[in-house]
Structures are given as C-alpha cells and as structure tokens.
Amino acid sequence: MPILHPTSLADLNTLGAQITVIGAGPIGLNMAIALSDRGFKVLVLESGTEAKLPERQDLAADHILTPDTHHAPEITTARRLGGAGGLWGGRCVPCDEIDFRDRPWLDLTAWPITKADLDPHLHEACDLMGAGKPVFSSPIADLNATSDRFTTDRLERWTNQPRAHVKHRERLENDPNITVALDVTVTGFVLQDDQIDALNVYLHASDTPAQTLPVTQVILAAGGNASTRLLLNVQADTPDLFGGADGPLGKFYMGHVNGQIADIVFDNQTLHDALTYHVDDHGSYVRRRITPSDACQQEAGIANVAFWPVVPEISEAEHRSGPLSSVFLGLTAPVIGKRIIAEPIRLRHCGPGPYKRLRHIWNVLRDPLSTLSFAPWFIYHRYFAPNRIPGFFLTNPARRYGLEFHSEHLPAPDSQMRLSTERDATGLRRMDIDFRFSDRDIDSVLRAHDEIETWLTHEGFGRLVYRYSEADRRKGVLQEAKHGNHQEGTIRMGTDRNSAVVDGLGQSFDLKNLKVISTGILPTSSQANPTLTALQIGLRLADHLAGSHKETTPHA
User: Model-level pTM?
Assistant: First the structure.
C-alpha cells in the first residue's frame, strides 16, 4: 500500500489491519516491517506529514520546567514521517548484562527479562537499523593491560541511515501488508471491558476531527514522551488505569548524565590510534568505548558508564586548527548547521549563539591546505560514501582530547512528567516535564572519573586534566549534563501494575490488547543509547504475537 494522507476513516476501515502501530519513527516503522515479515497486516498511524509542519510540531510543545537540564521539545521530538530519526545520530549500542540484574549498591532491582531473552533478536535489530552485523566487541591488538578494571574492547555501531522512512522507503510503499497513514493524531482510547475497542483519532485534513477507528491489537511506539503523554491523557479519563494516580506512569524519567569535566592526554599511541571512527569488517562505522568492568562498578559503587575521547572544544579558537574552525563555522552557519548533526550534539560542541567567528576565520586562512583537504573528505564520507561517517574526530599531535562521559541516569520518582491544564489543537493536555539529576548521579560520575584516572595512570595509558577545580567538579557535572533526547523510564517495565505499566513483552497490565514498544519502558538507562534495545524488545514481542497468532489460527 502507498503512504496515505487520509481524509476520512473510510480509507482506514477498509484495510482490515490486524495490528495498529501508533508512531512512524525508528521503532514504529521497523516494527511494521518486522510484523509484516511475520505475516501480519499492519496499519501505522503518524501524527505528522512528510514535511516538517510548525502546526504539527506544536503538538509536541510540552512545558519544560527544568530548561537547564532538558533540551527544548523541538530538538528532542519530531512530529513527521520518520519521527525522531531525523534528530538521531544513529548510534546503536545494546544494553549490558549488568543492566538486567539486581544491583544492590544502587538500590536497583532486576528487569523482568534478561539479556539472554533479547540476544536472539540482536541480529535482526541491527539489520533493520542498517548497523551492520551484531558485533560489539573487538580487542585492540598489541594493547597489553595488566588490570581488568576497564575494557577498551566494547564497540558502538552506527547506522548508515538513521532515517527509517528513507532506508525502508521502497518497502513501505510497496509492501501490501503495510499502510502508513499520515496526518492522523491518536487522542485517546475507547475502552470495552479490559481492552481497547477503538482509537479516538484526529484527522487533520478532515472537517470532522472527532472520530473513532476500530482496532484489534495496538502497539504504542510514538516515542518515550509522546507515548507517555497519550497514556497520561487516557489515565485522566479512566483514573484507575496504569496503577492509578499514585502509580508509576510518568515517573522515573531518565536520559543520561553526559558531558566533559576533564581532558584526556594519551601516553600510549596504540590506545590513542584505536579510538577513532572506522569501518570494521561487519558493515558499518564503529568506535570503541572505554567502560568499567562489572566488578569495578560494584566495588566502586558506581552506575554503568562509558567514556570516549572527543575533539577539543571547537568553539575555542585557541586550538588554532583550520579544520576544527571550519567545522565550527559550518555548524554555526544559519540553517546549514542544524542539518549536519543532531541539534543536541551541535549545541554541545558549539554552545548557544551569538557566535564569535572572526578568529575561526583567521584559523582557516592560516591553515588553508589542511582545511581544504578536510572539508571535501568529510562531506563525501558524510553524505555520499557507502558507509556514512557519524561525526568528526580529528587527531592531534599532543594527543589531548575532551573526555566524554555517558553515565546511567538513576531512576527517581521526582524526575517526572505530569499533565498540565493547557491543551493542544487536538484537545490533548500538554505535559509539564520536570527532569532532574540527583546527588547520586553526580557522585557516581565523579567516582567513575576517579576510577578511570587510576586505571589510566596505573597502565601508563594516559592521564586526566580536569577542567574544573576539585571543589567545583560537582557543579561542573551539572553544568555539563543536559538531556531529553533519550526518553526512558516513564512507562516502566516490571512484574506488576503497582510498580510498572507493562511487563517484559511490553504488554500493558491493564489493557490486554495494548502493547508499548518505546524507550519509555526501559526500567534503567544503562550506559547505552536506548533505541537498539527497545527494538530488540519489539522483535521479541513480534515473535510472541506470531506464535500466538499461529496457535489461534484454524488449520485449513
């Protein structure tokens, strides 16, 4: 079926969809393909259109009560075909085994599923994402470490095309089992006993927006915050759902604690050379991360965390690098800059405007040969090469870089979202988002730096040079950390409806034909980016639904 812009429910009612997916982002579209592969007829409902329309994006304009720690909605959500895929850098990292276990040093209980439950779905998830084969470990040859407190073997993989609607365009337009309906916003559920009988839908192209669409099975995959907002609005109409007003829905909002409070200076050339972006033998760009062992995490009492080097602060022209200044000028150019990399990453490198460009222009003029050779190389590898380079990382003779930390954000009930009194154009109540980092988050980041500093010096691999005095490092972590593009925890996965909204399959405890496949269901945030794990959970659900459907289908 083609991608539709329906003007009435007649277009949708005649499809006979067995499963209705809400949301056409990276998870929703990949779930549609996976379900079609398993023989299901799927309808995907997307609130936006192919273009980025201000009036559709306004539907995501929730109120950020903590702007110092949470990015604005327009750079963390996208109401359009492809969803946040247009904002996503494409980093694919599975959760670690330790994430699924009890961790008493952090007061964290085990997930209702194990890593072994998800591992069989890693290959398909990587294939759908376009991230090569599921290889996430690669030892560095000739790097001899005497301590196993940290490992340098772990890989992050990068999708060659993070926009699922672009990667799968031909399939979406020609698969008879998939229909993608644009400009349809789901505003609520019509309930019959303990299941959804129909969806309340707002058809933006229609003069009569208050309509209902009968459904059989529903998979909510509208992104962490959008999915939470819809469920909170449903709960407002039926207060006993999802654990009630005092239940978990909307609470425990997590992202990651990230930033740079120190530089790393490498004394070991082998380690230095091994930490750049490169295409491996398995089909995509990869990069190594420096991560603490499970034993180190437990003994130091820290959350899961990863480290990697980044280019020096490109906004500071004192680096005197023509290529780095050319990157800064490109990223801060009006309109163009926001198209080069995801906006949160651009802001992390460049900061907010206004920008001082004169000294950067001088760096470019002083270093023309390096600059002229870098720009065509990067443009080709970013936009035209078979494997898309995910970002820029330029080595330097001093072997000094920023040390990025990407730490688990520990779940806390006061980091949350709740409904406001304001309503959007469809009648849905907007959210007040109160996103917080705790003292425990800061303590963990600081102890993790102590641990990696000890390991680096013990092995002779390098050293840290802090950007903040010891007295100011706590403040430094908070000044650096800002998130909202990883939206986790507010539709928690667990073992019962008092502490969670869904079970290990994403099945709602309260509504038997509602499933939620979203980063919002992850009960802890790991050091890993959440999209790949959420898709693995979705593929496990797809197999479960296919098995159940086969059992209930009469034999011919």
Answer: 0.92
